[in-house]
Write a structure and sequence with these properties.
Strand order of the largest sheet: 6-5-14-15-16-13-17
InterPro entries: FAD-bd (IPR002938), FAD-dep_Monooxygenase_BioMet (IPR050493), FAD/NAD-bd_sf (IPR036188)
Number of domains: 2
CATH architecture of the largest domain: 3-Layer(bba) Sandwich
Keywords: Monooxygenase, Oxidoreductase
Oligomer: single chain
Protein name: FAD-binding domain-containing protein
Order of helices and strands: EHEEHHEEEEHEEEEEHEEEEHHEEEHHHH
Strand content: 25-35%
Number of helices: 11
Radius of gyration: 21 Å
Distance between the termini: 22 Å
CATH topology of the largest domain: FAD/NAD(P)-binding domain
GO molecular function: FAD binding; monooxygenase activity
CATH superfamily of the largest domain: FAD/NAD(P)-binding domain
Pfam families: FAD_binding_3
């Protein structure tokens, strides 16, 4: 395959960056990936996976390993605050691909599977390295923190929601914006009643649980908070238990199991939306650097991986770099903006205490759209 350009530097070795590296490499581009973390690790708890995300994992060649290491099911369950089932939502993608409709996996496990694919493909990964400067235009001469420099036809900025590349090249784009919710995350032993992605709606806030392996599960709780405050680590379990106290059933069981040693984190939800186009002067933003979403549709990782895959496909099909980037934007902008918009819509409904039926309807409509080909 002959790509529209020959070389690419990818800044950021996370989900978006690794996906782009694999897809551009497949298209025939000579790729170099860099990451500031010399250990190339990732922190975090479990993540929820949708059917469309599992589909792009198949495209990247990691689905079989994800199925072995994580947990999948065919649908998504919505319950009331006592655990009574309100609806089962179909999550499978269209096209008869035989891919499950939902799932979960530990974030470090997903990172490890993608990193192994990078190594297996022989893609250069330079760790403990950052960009110190870039020339104008394309090809770009890039200077690195180790004192070296090199030239690349395209620079792919996959450096996350707080992207330094976006700040430099797109200074007019507003930085991360707090959306009025704090996401509490808990890793815990899997409750026997949780065998699929499950929401608990109708209480004062939204709670979700999802298996991430046969023995573990991930719980999130979205708390409406006008002003973010720092919570001491030794108060996390008691604060979380207080937030869960009006729920019965499975949620009450999990609450009773909380201890001072429970694996809990609480983080404010923030979003960034970069107007089209996401490219300028030989640099393109992808993933959270371009369109960081809140987690209501569990699609942030999926959109990041799709960005990487589509960038490679456009590189392999276009005649020039500009044509490739233009085609990339035509395929990605509306879909990613849709995810951000519908996620924020769900957040507003949650904060307003809207009925579970109204929330379920938004999820069903959004997944029906996202299940279409990307």
């Amino acid at each position: 395959m002959v790509a529209a350009f020959e070389t690419a530097l990818i800044i950021g070795g996370g989900i978006a960056g690794m996906s782009a590296a694999l897809s551009l490499h497949e298209a025939g581009v000579n790729v170099r990936l860099i990451d500031r973390d010399a250990k190339w690790g990732v922190s975090g708890a479990g993540i929820t996976i949708t059917g469309p995300t599992l589909r792009v994992m198949k495209r990247l060649g990691i689905l079989d390993d994800v199925l072995k290491a994580g947990w999948t099911s065919d649908d998504i369950r919505a319950c009331d605050a006592e655990g009574n089932v309100l609806a089962d939502i179909e999550g499978r993608t269209s096209g008869g691909e035989g891919i499950p409709g939902a799932g979960g996996i530990m974030r470090p496990t997903l990172h490890r599977l993608l990193a192994q694919r990078i190594r297996d493909e022989g893609i250069e990964a330079s760790l403990g390295l950052t960009v110190t400067s870039m020339s104008e235009g394309s090809p770009k001469v890039v200077s690195f923190s180790d004192g070296t420099e090199a030239s690349y036809d395209l620079v792919v900025a996959a450096d996350g929601i707080f992207s330094e590349t976006r700040k430099t090249l797109f200074p007019e784009v507003e930085g991360p914006k707090y959306v009025g919710q704090v996401c509490w995350r808990l890793m815990a032993p899997r409750h026997p009643g949780i065998d699929r992605r499950t929401y608990f709606l109708g209480g004062p806030m939204k709670i979700g649980m999802n298996p991430v392996s046969p023995d573990e599960m991930y719980m999130f709780l979205l708390e409406p908070v006008e002003t973010v405050e720092w919570i001491p680590e030794d108060e996390l379990s008691t604060r979380l238990a207080k937030l869960m106290e009006s729920y019965g059933g499975i949620v009450a069981d999990v609450r009773e199991g909380l201890t001072a040693d429970s694996n809990i984190v609480a983080r404010p939800l923030e979003t960034v939306v970069c107007p089209a186009p996401w490219y300028r002067d030989g640099v393109v933003l992808i993933g959270d650097a371009a369109h960081a979403t809140t987690p209501q549709l569990a699609s942030g990782a999926g959109m990041a991986m799709e960005d990487g895959v589509v960038l490679g496909e456009c590189a392999g099909a276009a005649a020039t770099l500009d044509d490739a980037l233009d085609a990339f934007m035509k395929r990605r902008f509306d879909r990613c903006a849709f995810v951000v918009d519908k996620s924020l819509t769900l957040g507003r409904l949650e904060k307003a205490g809207s009925s579970p039926i109204d929330q379920i309807k938004v999820v069903e409509e959004a997944l029906a759209e996202l299940n279409q080909p990307y």
